[in-house]
Please model this.
Amino acid sequence: MKINCPFCKQETEYVYNIDKYRIVRCKNCATLFCENMPSTEEIKAYYDGFKHGGINLSNKYKIISNAYKDWFKSFNLPKDAKMLDIGGGGGFFSCCFEKFAFGKATYIDIDPVSCKFAQSLNISEVILGDVNDIKEKSDKKYDFIYSRHVIEHLVNPTKIIDSAIDLLNPKGIFILQFPNGQSFELLASKKFLNNRIEVLKKSNKNFSLKDICGFIFSKNTGNDLYPPRHLWAISKKGIKTYLANKNDIEFTIETKSIRDKIYSPYYKNTHDYSRIVMFLLEKIHGGNHLICKIIKK
Model:
């Protein structure tokens, strides 16, 4: 059965496999995603006790810093603002928001280990639950919502986008951050590139090395797509088309490098990455992060 792209509603086509997952691509916006999504049980099992690299106290001070104080300040939020931190991982963004007295934060994450860690930071409200159910979990409206690298993990990413917009106060701001589905920037890592080649070779027995390299170095390949963790490689055109159909918001979209100090606080510059190659690859289709700033009218 043909599946249409949820971002631009156009037809998709099969492109390749990753393990047991069939990957399809939108013929219009080039967003890629799993045709056969993992079950709810598989996803819960994967994230039960999942520890993001940011969950340790040494990373606390990377975010609870003047750089992030200035970042929050740049949004000109009202006094005693309310923040919603969707899929908040270590909880450091919520903690920073409260530490610098911007207001009160509500944190939600599906992982009990992450939530327990977030509670140790004394965040005002910590919710253990599925972010897809945020409208049922919270009866508040928010002045600032942050979703950092969450929607690419979800079976239905447009649902959480819609829910977040509905939960905004008038003039409220939603910062939606996720991987740029067309970026080449990660290919500057030899480890990442070799792993990508091996995954495609293993999952697609009929592919030659030439076929594989053709996919990897195509802007339509979705290099950051690896289920059951990342289920989507969303293009800039895809998210722009989706948001443009909403009459109650204004928005801007930009890309940011994996080296960006605000949007990549846990990035470590190892010898595996070539700075020069990374810089050149970023110039082709943008940095690894897509950043959408959405404002409720």
About this structure: Residues 40-179+235-296 form a domain with the Rossmann fold fold (CATH 3.40.50.150). The mean pLDDT is 90.
